[in-house]
């Protein structure tokens, strides 16, 4: 079986590539990082180490790579593959869509079987978004045939993979925990099964539980930690005031999840406790600026902060901790993050009210708007 995976970065190498290779796929990575592409082709393997006491290490074999700029070669690989996966960042999906469309078109000219395309990004409906971008490049008659032969199941992926510290650009350290959930309701019969993936009929509760617990808690740690001058999530987790904020946001998102999806309350509390322990993992060094990266994406209406806050509000629930976390995100001014730079420029030029509405779509008339602004005014860097 053949898989084409876009993004030989942290999660691509440390999670997706590992599981695909273990399941018997030859994995062809597609990346724009030429050095990494060359190394993958020279070695045909790489190492993944678990962030645990024994530093358990696995060698991932049966891999190769193509430079993303070689669009024709990538399209040919897609035409011959059983599975396409991505872990490039949700904002990059529009840029890889044309090549995927080319691959699908080529594939549909031949006799190749059905294709599954899974976007493994931190977003609600990542594969559905990718499908829309890909369909934007297909002619109407190709779209019709693609609808019958190409499935885009949404997915939720969970494994903390920090920025890497090894000199070897292919060696990745990952936390031991992992969860990959895929919506099987749109998959054709005989779809390629990936060992370790949990296939479900309804993905909504899983992706929202993951995004609004792991990622909401994580960015809350990152933004408050950044303001207090901490460099890593592990340092941040030693600050009891920040842990109280994290537990606060997680009880707010938890109340929404339990109400909307009927999760068992006690089980959800255990899920939260486990996540807080994962953030503390002493064998990981996870920088706050990685976890807080792309604040404009994280402040967008359907992402980990604003969506649960707005839903909670509409259900009559108070969200003081989410309000603080949104305010802290607005104060994220890390100069090497292009979105943080853009956010700070907008704040300077437009002021807090307009900026807040522009990125979160929370209108000035909404009660949460004023509360976020008040929290923003009271938050300062404490470095
Ligand atoms: N790291 C984690 O803990 C983690 C966990 C779950 C989900 N995710 C999600 O996975 C995605 C990737 O995250 P990451 O941490 O691996 O990031 P990363 O920056 O380590 O990896 C992204 C890779 O994509 C490559 N890339 C960028 N543009 C490309 C293009 N046009 N064509 C091909 N490759 C391209 C980059 O060169 C890089 O190697 C994000 O959506 C993230 O939210 C990350
Ligand atoms: O990847 P982002 O920028 O959406 O979020 C940063 C981290 O919270 C994220 O990468 C987590 O480590 C990951 O989602 C854990 O499964």
How would you describe this protein?
The structure is a single chain. The strands form 3 sheets. A 6-stranded parallel beta sheet has the order 5-2-1-6-7-8, with helices on both faces. A 3-stranded mixed beta sheet has the order 4-3-10. The protein has a 3-stranded mixed beta sheet with strand order 9-11-12, with helices on one face. It has 383 residues and is an alpha/beta fold. It is built from 16 helices and 12 strands. The protein has 2 domains: 2-201, Rossmann fold; 205-378, N-(1-d-carboxylethyl)-l-norvaline Dehydrogenase, domain 2 (Orthogonal Bundle). The termini are far apart. It has helices at 10-22, 34-43, 71-80, 93-109, 126-135, 140-149, 204-227, 233-236, 240-261, 265-280, 288-291, 295-298, 306-314, 320-330, 338-360, 367-378; strands at residues 2-6, 26-31, 45-50, 57-61, 63-67, 83-86, 115-119, 150-151, 155-158, 172-174, 179-183, 197-200. The model has no long low-confidence stretch (mean pLDDT 97). α7 (204-227) packs across α14. The structure holds nicotinamide-adenine-dinucleotide and D-Mannitol-1-phosphate (44H). D-Mannitol-1-phosphate is lined by residues 122, 158-160, 214-215, 218, 291, 293-294. Pfam families: Mannitol_dh (PF01232), Mannitol_dh_C (PF08125). Its EC number is 1.1.1.17.
Set out the fold topology.
Elements: E1 2-6, H1 10-22, E2 26-31, H2 34-43, E3 45-50, E4 57-61, E5 63-67, H3 71-80, E6 83-86, H4 93-109, E7 115-119, H5 126-135, H6 140-149, E8 150-151, E9 155-158, E10 172-174, E11 179-183, E12 197-200, H7 204-227, H8 233-236, H9 240-261, H10 265-280, H11 288-291, H12 295-298, H13 306-314, H14 320-330, H15 338-360, H16 367-378
Parallel strand pairs: 1-2, 1-6, 2-5, 3-10, 6-7, 7-8, 11-12
Antiparallel strand pairs: 3-4, 9-11
Helix pairs in contact: 3-4, 4-5, 7-9, 7-10, 7-14, 9-10, 9-13, 9-14, 14-16, 15-16
The chain binds nicotinamide-adenine-dinucleotide and D-Mannitol-1-phosphate.
Keywords: NAD, Oxidoreductase
Domain Mannitol dehydrogenase N-terminal: 1-195
Domain Mannitol dehydrogenase C-terminal: 203-379
